[in-house]
Write a structure and sequence with these properties.
single chain; two-stranded antiparallel ribbon
Protein backbone atom coordinates (compact mmCIF):
# COMPACT_ATOMS: atom_id res chain seq x y z
CA UNK A 1 0.00 0.00 0.00
CA UNK A 2 1.34 3.44 -0.86
CA UNK A 3 1.64 6.11 1.79
CA UNK A 4 -1.27 8.06 0.26
CA UNK A 5 -3.47 5.07 -0.53
CA UNK A 6 -6.39 3.62 1.37
CA UNK A 7 -5.95 0.30 3.13
CA UNK A 8 -8.90 -1.63 1.73
CA UNK A 9 -8.72 -4.13 4.60
CA UNK A 10 -9.70 -1.39 7.07
CA UNK A 11 -11.67 1.00 4.84
CA UNK A 12 -15.28 1.29 6.00
CA UNK A 13 -16.28 2.75 2.64
CA UNK A 14 -14.83 -0.23 0.81
CA UNK A 15 -16.54 -2.65 3.21
CA UNK A 16 -19.88 -0.89 2.67
CA UNK A 17 -19.42 -1.22 -1.09
CA UNK A 18 -18.57 -4.91 -0.70
CA UNK A 19 -21.67 -5.44 1.46
CA UNK A 20 -23.85 -3.61 -1.06
CA UNK A 21 -22.43 -5.72 -3.87
CA UNK A 22 -23.03 -8.97 -1.96
CA UNK A 23 -26.59 -7.87 -1.16
CA UNK A 24 -27.24 -7.02 -4.80
CA UNK A 25 -26.00 -10.43 -5.98
CA UNK A 26 -28.13 -12.25 -3.38
CA UNK A 27 -31.22 -10.22 -4.30
CA UNK A 28 -30.68 -10.79 -8.02
CA UNK A 29 -30.43 -14.54 -7.41
CA UNK A 30 -33.61 -14.52 -5.31
CA UNK A 31 -35.58 -12.41 -7.80
CA UNK A 32 -34.42 -14.11 -11.02
CA UNK A 33 -36.81 -17.12 -10.74
CA UNK A 34 -39.67 -14.61 -10.40
CA UNK A 35 -38.65 -12.89 -13.65
CA UNK A 36 -37.93 -9.80 -11.60
CA UNK A 37 -34.95 -7.47 -11.35
CA UNK A 38 -33.95 -5.32 -8.41
CA UNK A 39 -35.02 -2.18 -10.27
CA UNK A 40 -38.43 -3.69 -11.18
CA UNK A 41 -38.90 -4.82 -7.60
CA UNK A 42 -37.85 -1.40 -6.24
CA UNK A 43 -40.27 0.38 -8.55
CA UNK A 44 -43.21 -1.84 -7.55
CA UNK A 45 -42.33 -1.59 -3.85
CA UNK A 46 -42.11 2.20 -4.03
CA UNK A 47 -45.51 2.35 -5.74
CA UNK A 48 -47.06 0.06 -3.14
CA UNK A 49 -45.82 2.30 -0.35
CA UNK A 50 -46.44 5.62 -2.10
CA UNK A 51 -49.07 5.30 -4.85
CA UNK A 52 -49.05 7.98 -7.51
CA UNK A 53 -45.32 8.68 -7.54
CA UNK A 54 -43.97 10.40 -10.62
CA UNK A 55 -41.35 8.99 -12.97
CA UNK A 56 -38.75 11.29 -11.39
CA UNK A 57 -39.64 10.22 -7.84
CA UNK A 58 -39.49 6.55 -8.83
CA UNK A 59 -36.13 7.02 -10.55
CA UNK A 60 -34.64 8.67 -7.46
CA UNK A 61 -36.05 5.96 -5.19
CA UNK A 62 -34.75 3.13 -7.38
CA UNK A 63 -31.35 4.81 -8.00
CA UNK A 64 -31.73 4.93 -11.80
CA UNK A 65 -32.02 7.70 -14.38
CA UNK A 66 -35.39 9.17 -15.34
CA UNK A 67 -34.89 7.78 -18.84
CA UNK A 68 -34.30 4.25 -17.53
CA UNK A 69 -37.35 4.51 -15.26
CA UNK A 70 -39.50 5.73 -18.14
CA UNK A 71 -38.52 2.68 -20.22
CA UNK A 72 -39.24 0.41 -17.25
CA UNK A 73 -42.62 2.02 -16.58
CA UNK A 74 -43.62 1.58 -20.22
CA UNK A 75 -42.68 -2.11 -19.98
CA UNK A 76 -44.53 -2.57 -16.67
CA UNK A 77 -47.56 -0.84 -18.15
CA UNK A 78 -47.54 -3.16 -21.20
CA UNK A 79 -47.34 -6.13 -18.82
CA UNK A 80 -50.32 -4.85 -16.86
CA UNK A 81 -48.41 -4.35 -13.61
CA UNK A 82 -48.83 -0.57 -13.41
CA UNK A 83 -51.21 2.00 -14.78
CA UNK A 84 -50.47 5.63 -15.59
CA UNK A 85 -52.96 8.41 -16.16
CA UNK A 86 -53.44 9.41 -19.79
CA UNK A 87 -53.15 13.06 -18.78
CA UNK A 88 -51.33 14.75 -15.95
CA UNK A 89 -53.79 16.01 -13.31
CA UNK A 90 -51.38 18.86 -12.54
CA UNK A 91 -48.45 20.05 -14.64
CA UNK A 92 -46.62 17.36 -16.61
CA UNK A 93 -46.39 14.68 -13.90
CA UNK A 94 -48.09 11.40 -14.79
CA UNK A 95 -48.81 9.56 -11.53
CA UNK A 96 -48.30 5.79 -11.59
CA UNK A 97 -50.17 3.14 -9.58
CA UNK A 98 -49.96 -0.62 -9.18
CA UNK A 99 -52.59 -2.86 -10.70
CA UNK A 100 -53.92 -5.92 -8.85
CA UNK A 101 -51.57 -8.02 -11.00
CA UNK A 102 -48.68 -5.76 -10.00
CA UNK A 103 -49.55 -6.25 -6.32
CA UNK A 104 -49.52 -10.04 -6.78
CA UNK A 105 -46.10 -9.98 -8.45
CA UNK A 106 -44.82 -7.65 -5.76
CA UNK A 107 -45.96 -9.97 -2.96
CA UNK A 108 -43.82 -12.82 -4.32
CA UNK A 109 -40.83 -10.57 -4.85
CA UNK A 110 -41.15 -9.03 -1.40
CA UNK A 111 -41.07 -12.49 0.20
CA UNK A 112 -37.89 -13.31 -1.72
CA UNK A 113 -36.23 -10.03 -0.71
CA UNK A 114 -37.25 -10.45 2.93
CA UNK A 115 -35.62 -13.90 2.92
CA UNK A 116 -32.36 -12.36 1.65
CA UNK A 117 -32.45 -9.65 4.29
CA UNK A 118 -33.20 -12.21 7.00
CA UNK A 119 -30.17 -14.23 5.84
CA UNK A 120 -28.02 -11.11 5.82
CA UNK A 121 -28.97 -10.24 9.40
CA UNK A 122 -29.01 -13.79 10.76
CA UNK A 123 -25.76 -13.39 12.70
CA UNK A 124 -26.84 -10.18 14.42
CA UNK A 125 -28.93 -9.64 17.53
CA UNK A 126 -31.92 -7.29 17.38
CA UNK A 127 -29.86 -4.73 19.31
CA UNK A 128 -26.94 -5.00 16.87
CA UNK A 129 -29.34 -4.63 13.94
CA UNK A 130 -30.77 -1.47 15.50
CA UNK A 131 -27.30 -0.05 16.10
CA UNK A 132 -26.20 -0.87 12.54
CA UNK A 133 -29.35 0.75 11.14
CA UNK A 134 -28.82 3.94 13.14
CA UNK A 135 -25.14 4.09 12.20
CA UNK A 136 -25.78 3.60 8.49
CA UNK A 137 -28.61 6.15 8.54
CA UNK A 138 -26.23 8.61 10.24
CA UNK A 139 -23.59 8.02 7.57
CA UNK A 140 -26.10 8.69 4.80
CA UNK A 141 -27.32 11.85 6.48
CA UNK A 142 -23.75 13.09 7.02
CA UNK A 143 -22.84 12.56 3.39
CA UNK A 144 -26.02 14.20 2.12
CA UNK A 145 -25.72 17.06 4.56
CA UNK A 146 -29.13 16.35 6.12
Amino acid sequence: MSQDGIDLRTSLGYLLKEAASALRVAMEEALRPLDMTITRYSCLELLAQRPGLSNSDLARGAFVTRQSMNVLLQQLEREGLVVRAAEAPVGKVLPTDLTPSGRERLASATAAVRAVEKRMLSGMSAHDQDVAFRMLRGMVESLRGD
